[in-house]
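SEVERITY: medium
COMPONENT: batch folding queue
REPORTER: lab tech (J.R.)

DESCRIPTION
The queue accepted two submissions in a row. Attaching both inputs and their returned structure tokens so the on-call engineer can compare them side by side.

ATTACHMENT 1
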Amino acid sequence: MDIYCERVNDGFWAEPLNAVTNLAFLIVVVWGVKALGGSARPAIKFWDLWLLVVLLALIGLGSFLWHTLATSWSALADALPILGFIYVYLLSFLARVAKFSVMGMGFWFSVFLFLNYLVYTELPANFLNGSVFYLPAWVSLLAMTIYCRVAGLSAGRDLFLASLLFTVSLTFRSVDQALCEAWSLGTHFVWHILNALVLYRTMRAIMPLRADRQRAIAGN
């Protein structure tokens, strides 16, 4: 399956930049493990955050497999962890940051699923070079940023930076095929690097670790 500029043959290392830049996701995983391990609260309190860290690792692994093997099953290994991360993250945000009730969480999660349905049914799959898959997540990230800004929540700063980075990274992902003749390596590898920063910022936004450490220091 050849859908990126960098791939010019069917070899395992036909996309070296697209493959190696998945290390950026694993760097965020290491940060996440250290950050959660440094919390003063029991690990069970952060079960959803630990799940997000595991999904981050699977994103890096799945993307590596996709950009080296380029098969239909490796495409699923790439896409499913991303979808899982988006779903879990939205629910974690609604619970941890917005502090909605179960009914409120269910309502907004349903709105997100409906938005996905509209995008997938009304827009062609190859729209923006396949970046249509990420449009609901982009819209949701903007909505979360605006919510935090209006509510005066500290998570707003990280989400604002994540929104800016995600906009730029989506642009690089979308123009990959269009720039093949001018730049044979393509721009998909930039999407990996910037998206790792996006995930780092979004994770920071929902991790209440700073307050935990302050309470621990006060307790000592």
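ATTACHMENT 2
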Amino acid sequence: MMLLKDKVAIITGGARGIGKEIALTFAREGAKVAIADINPQTLKEAEKEIASCGVEALALTVDVTDYTQVGQMVNKTLDKFKKIDILISNAGITADALLVRMKEEDWDRVLAVNLKGTFNCTKAVSRVMIKQRSGKIINIASIIGLIGNVGQANYAASKAGVIGLTKSAARELAPRGINVNAIAPGFIQTEMTQRLPEEVKSKMLEAIPLKKFGQPRDVARLAAFLASDEAGYITGQTICVDGGMV
């Protein structure tokens, strides 16, 4: 039985990496999928892949730091699918540097995409879900938001903020039948993590009790469960997918 049959999902950062894997998993589980990303070329490629799963797909070029563009994303999704059941706030960036060398613009940019972007999407979609009196919001955080990391003060702060936002939104929206949760991935093999130096990867592997890196599908399967009716009594939680690191 399909977990998400006839559900409508918006997935930001959905053109590659974890976001794309979530979109494909949702499509295989029967959901209609709107993917939002800032890169039009990778968006179109991802849209074709999702459509090949036999579901309707919609690709939207969106800068999540701009609330007007986020509002347009919501309206276009409603125009095509008539409802929004699920929001996955996955769009995120890194701009690593030691704290004393970090440029102010890199601090601002990471906080804008990762935290403000999640706020913008949550605010815009929750207006729709409140009227429906139902919905599932899943924010992609990170274990770095829980434990910190050298050279990632901006990223850690943004993801810790996402966790706090998730807990507050869960309390506010629960009376309207809306579940809000966060997933905190550990070291997941994506394009972003592949760029890390080999010595960094080796150190990370030593810190993982399961002694292996995660795959995007590990996050995607949890997202599908949390987005389904099976997870109706789970809200306000941050669930780590990290091989035991935290």
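NOTES FROM REPORTER
The CA atoms of residues 34 and 187 lie 26 Å apart.
No errors were logged for either attachment.
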